[in-house]
Amino acid sequence: MLKLKFRKLHTTIVEGVDPANIVGYLFQEGVISQDEITALRKIRDDPKQQCEELLSKLHMSKNPQAFVKLYIAIKKQPHLQWLIESIDNFDQQSLIDLLEQMYINDQTGECVFKIRETGNVRCN
C-alpha cells in the first residue's frame, strides 16, 4: 500500500524533498546498492533529479521493504513531517481509484497500471 501512496504522491515528493539524507539511510539499510548511491550522489546538485532517480530505483526494486524503509527515512527527518502527514492521511478514495487502474497481465503474470498519458507501468 505504501508503494501505491508514493506513486500517487510522486510529483509532490520530487518537488518538495531533498533526498540527500534519505539516500544514506537507504544505503545503510541495504535498500540501494553502492553503485546506486554513488550514481545518486553524482547528481546531488540537482535535488529534484536526484529524488526522481531515487524513486525510480525504488519502484524498480525487488526489495519488498523498499517503501517501508523510505517511509522510515522520511519520518526521521523533522522537516518532512508534512509529507508523513500526507502519506498517513492519504485519501482512501484515491487509493481505490489507483487500484482500479491495476490489472494482471494474463501472459506474463505481471501487475500493470493502466496510465493514459504514458502507457502501462509495471507494479513490481
The beta-strand count equals 3
User: What is the first-to-last residue Cα distance?
Assistant: 12 Å
Mean pLDDT: 82
Count of DSSP-assigned helices: 8
The major pleated sheet works out as:
3 strands, antiparallel
Number of structural domains:
2
CATH class value of the largest domain: Mainly Alpha
Helix content: 55-70%
CATH architectural category of the largest domain = Orthogonal Bundle
Structural class: mainly alpha
Order of helices and strands: HHHHHHHHEEE
Low-confidence segments: 116-124
CATH superfamily of the largest domain: Death Domain, Fas
Radius of gyration: 15 Å
Can you offer a commentary on this structure?
With 124 residues, the protein is mainly alpha-helical. 59% of the residues lie in helices and 6% in strands. It has a 3-stranded antiparallel sheet. The longest helix has 14 residues, at 47-60. Residues 116-124 have low confidence and may be disordered.
Features:
single chain, 124 residues, mainly alpha, Death Domain, Fas, 2 domains, three-stranded antiparallel beta sheet, globular
Provide a quick synopsis of the model.
With 124 residues, the chain is mostly helical. It has helices at residues 2-8, 10-16, 20-28, 34-42, 47-60, 66-75, 81-88, 92-100, and strands at residues 102-104, 111-113, 121-122.
